[in-house]
Each structure stands twice: as C-alpha cells, then as structure tokens.
Specification:
The structure is a homodimer of 225-residue chains.
Chain A: H1 7-21, H2 28-35, H3 39-50, E1 57-59, E2 65-67, H4 69-93, H5 100-107, H6 113-122, E3 148-149, E4 158-164, H7 169-178, E5 185-191, E6 198-202, E7 208-211, H8 213-216, E8 219-223
Helix pairs in contact in A: 1-2, 1-4, 2-3, 4-5
Chain B binds a DNA duplex (30 and 30 nucleotides) through residues 6, 8, 27-29, 37-45, 47-48, 61-63.
Chain lengths: 225, 225
DNA sequence: TAAAATATTTAGGTTAACCTAAATTACACT
DNA sequence: AGTGTAATTTAGGTTAACCTAAATATTTTA
C-alpha cells in the first residue's frame, strides 16, 4: 500500500499521534518544537504527506494536521516497536528505565516484523513498557492509558504508581532516586495551595518528599477508592 | 575525530575491508557490484572519503582504494556490531543462521557502544558469530580466520566444520538441510578430478552427499592431521 | 476594529547519496 | 606501437530532507 515510510516520516507521524492523543493540536510549530526542526521544514513535510497517493495526514493550512487511518496505523506500528524494544532492553539486557528511550528511538525504525514478533513472544506479550505506557497490540489497537495524574489527588489519599509520562533520562533518573518507580505505593500528606507542591510519603521509605507539578502531572497512579 | 560516519559510508568501508581481507583489490567495479550501486557513484564516494580531513581511504585513480587506519577501525566497528548482533539474535531470540544476516545488516548501523557492550557481556564475550566468522575484539583486533577450505581436502581425510563464508539465506538454509552446520564432523570419500565434486559422509547421517566447489570453497574445516 | 504580535507559508538555497550518458584512461594483444 | 575493449571518471541530473529569510495569514490586544 505505502511505498517506503522513511525514518523521518515515521518520526513525524509518531509525534502527530502523541500530540493528538494528548488532546493538543498537531500544529506546525508544536511539531517543529518536538521534532527540533524549523517550522518551514514541517510545513513542507505536511504538504508532502497530505498529497501522497494514500495520504498519511489531512492538512489544512494554518490549522495543523490530523492523521488519516493509514497514518495512524503507521504511527502505532512505530510506537509498538518503540515500547516493545524498551521493554525488552530492560528485561533482557538490564537497562534502566532512563536509558532505554534513546536506544529505542533508533532501533524502532529498523527492526523487521519478524523481530517485533519474536521479542513480543519472548517477553510474553507485554501490555506495558518500562514506564507503564501501553503497548499497541499486534493488530495496532492502543490500550487506554492507565491511572490518573498524581496531581489530582487530595491529602491522605493512598495510591500506587502505574505510569510515568516522560522520556528525559535525567528526569527519569531523578524519579528513580526518589523511589518513585512503577509499583511504588504512596500516601499524599498535604498539598500546598498556591504552588501545588505535594508532600508524599513512600511506603518502605523514611521521610517525606515534596513534589512540584512538573512531576505530579507526569506521574499517574491508581487509588483504592 | 570523525564527524558522523553515515550508514552508507559504513557500508562502503565494510565492503572495502572484506574485499581487501579476501585478498582482492577494492576496485570501483568490485565495490559497485557488492554494494549494488552504479560505478560512477562509487567513484564519487571514494573521492569524498579520500578527501575528508582525516581520510577514511587512500585513493588512486583507476587502481582502487585501501583503508586508512581510521577507515579500518570504522569498518571493524561495524563488523563487530554485525557479528555480535547475529550471535545474539540466534542465542536469545531463536533465529536460525540463515535469517540473521539481513536483520543485522540494519541494526549494525544504529546500536550504541553501550548496547554493543551489553550484548557482548550477555553472550559471554563470544569469539565467533553463528557462521563461525571471527568477531573483532572490543579494541578492534580481528582474530584470524579459522579452518581451511573443505575443497583443499583429499579423500579419506576427516574434518570438522568450523566456519561457513556465506550470507545468502537460501544457500545457508541449503547447507543446514544437508546437515553441514558448525561442528558437524565429516569424512571425504572421493573427489572427482574434473569438476572437483566431492563425496562426503557426515557423521551421524545416513548416505553420502555430493558437493560442488561453490560449496566446498565456502565451508572451512579443521582436520586432525 | 486596527495595529501589533505570533504563526505559518513561500521562495530559494544546501547536503548526502544516488542515477544515466558521455568522455576518458588503462590494459591486453596482435 | 597501435587499437579495441573494458574499466573508470566526469558531467549533469534527481530525490529526500533539511535550512534561512522574506512574505503572508491569523490571532490577540489596545
């Protein structure tokens, strides 16, 4: 159906998918920031992707793009590759969750479907990557995101960390040092009214820790109630 | 030292290394055939590789190229990646020796040094890939090739298969079906004088098999004497 | 609602890595 | 030593994916 979807195009599609999934519009400038490209380059690529035989995106000047069904499929294929590779690097090569993103970012574009199938099978068909993000199924259905933002909790609520929405290595290493890892159990002690800084207590750890919104909006948890 | 050695350049360097190691000259046309490119493209690339700050090749018009020390290092780095990846696909994902080449061909260009180190360690620092080819060491020294060509043997000599110099999937699958795999033990029964067809008997297998030079020149063995 | 600020697009490069066709050089042999 | 063939190089494109600077739209704000 599609000729050869290049690495660059795969990156564009992935970012469009992610922006759209986060409820934001896939505007030229948002794409340019995420992809670290000049806005003019993004415009050019959008025009191209919208005008290939089976279009990958739907493009309306000055109002961003949306993925077509084919574009969405291609994006999910790359995201599935990315997340399976991350899971597998952690599982079989002892990588930590902060190291896998950059490696997966390169491998995701070159592995075969055979390879994808073999790692999925070797890992027992995992549903989530090392950050708790859902892995699209082999037939490219994205499972729903897990958990609610930690920022939404009120004092004295208890919760369990399900997912961390981040890819920056430094940020992830920091969370790891705090003990804020997948499966960690915590209790919200208090929330400061003006800056939303949250005091939490991690089960099995001494002392409390203070977390700003930059963190609490990226950590997703389940609550018992 | 070197800016960014692209995937294409890595491919050129690898083929130059292989031709040179096989005692052949790395001529424009030989490179063009191996890389499946037009000769004119090869000439252009050779001129470029010879004229970058620290040159990767030494180039003399009409008489092919030789790798510089830097070029050789870059080539060995890629070959080490390739062979480690092959070993690791067979070892951990159950690939067969005829399936690994094409996958490794893509992955070799994108893995990090960290990844290389981790698979080398996970495999216990293997010395040879699934075809018996030597894996350059971490400090980029290529171990000597193992074995002598099966074609060199005389009737009634016994031998053990150490290495198969081939990457074509069909060819390797064929050898596998014959039972001509790494470690197989065999006895040369007779060699036909005009076409060099060799009759061999594989230990643990019924019947004899006949092999032409296209095969016996690519299978390398050790003999007891 | 008009001007200012911001976002986006157009126009016109650049680089890497290919290609084909034509010209040239090297080599092999009578 | 001259000539024909084969190998190689030169010349002049092409494509993909970027860039900067200038032009134009859109949105915000006074």
């Amino acid at each position: 159906m599609y000729k050869k979807i290049t690495t660059s195009v795969q990156d564009y599609l992935k970012v469009i998918y992610e922006l759209t999934a986060a409820g934001q519009s896939a505007s030229t400038s948002a794409l340019a920031v995420r992809l670290k490209l000049a806005p003019a380059s993004v415009t050019g690529m959008m025009q191209k992707l919208a005008s290939t035989k089976p279009a990958l995106v739907e493009y309306h000047k000055h109002r961003g793009v949306k993925l077509t069904a084919g574009g969405r499929r291609a994006a999910l294929e790359v995201i599935r590759h990315h997340r399976l590779i991350e899971a597998w690097l952690v599982e079989t090569l002892g990588y930590s969750w902060d190291e896998v993103h950059s490696e997966a970012e390169k491998l995701e574009h070159v592995i075969s479907e055979e390879f994808e199938a073999r790692i999925a099978s070797a890992l027992g068909y995992p549903l989530r990557d090392p950050h708790g993000e859902p892995i699209p199924s082999a037939d490219l259905v994205m499972p729903p995101d897990q958990g609610i933002a930690l920022a939404k909790l009120k004092p004295v609520q208890e919760a369990c960390v399900l997912r961390v929405h981040a890819q920056d290595a430094g940020f992830l290493k920091h969370l790891d040092q705090l003990g804020l890892v997948i499966g960690a159990r915590l209790e919200v002690l208090e929330v400061s009214p003006y800056d939303q800084v949250m005091q939490i207590q991690l089960r099995g750890r001494a002392g409390t820790i203070a977390l700003g919104p930059a963190i609490t909006n990226r950590v997703f948890v389940s609550t018992s109630d």
